[in-house]
Write a structure and sequence with these properties.
The chain has 79 residues and is α+β, with helices and mostly antiparallel strands. The chain is 37% helix and 29% strand. The relative contact order is 0.21.
């Protein structure tokens, strides 16, 4: 399906969780998780470069994630 894949922080449990949201549903408003990393898996995000091969797009994402920014978001969420 279409939507977003997320890595989020649960303030209540202190745990990092993976989540998905359909459409443009916001992570925090729908799950309570603070967003750390989001991956847009709507076709518009990858079609030009990957055509209809979404797994190749998702695999390539890992090469460009700015983990320092993800870490900064986690530290901020933990305060």
């Amino acid at each position: 399906g279409s939507g977003w894949g997320w890595l989020g922080f649960d303030v209540k449990t202190g745990r990092i969780e993976a989540a998905t949201c359909p459409n443009q549903d916001p992570l925090q408003a729908t799950t309570g998780l603070v967003p750390l990393l989001g991956i847009d898996v709507w076709e518009h995000a990858y079609y030009v470069d990957y055509r209809n091969v979404r797994p190749n797009y998702v695999n390539a994402i890992w090469d460009i994630i700015n983990w320092k920014t993800v870490e900064e978001r986690l530290v901020a969420a933990q305060k």
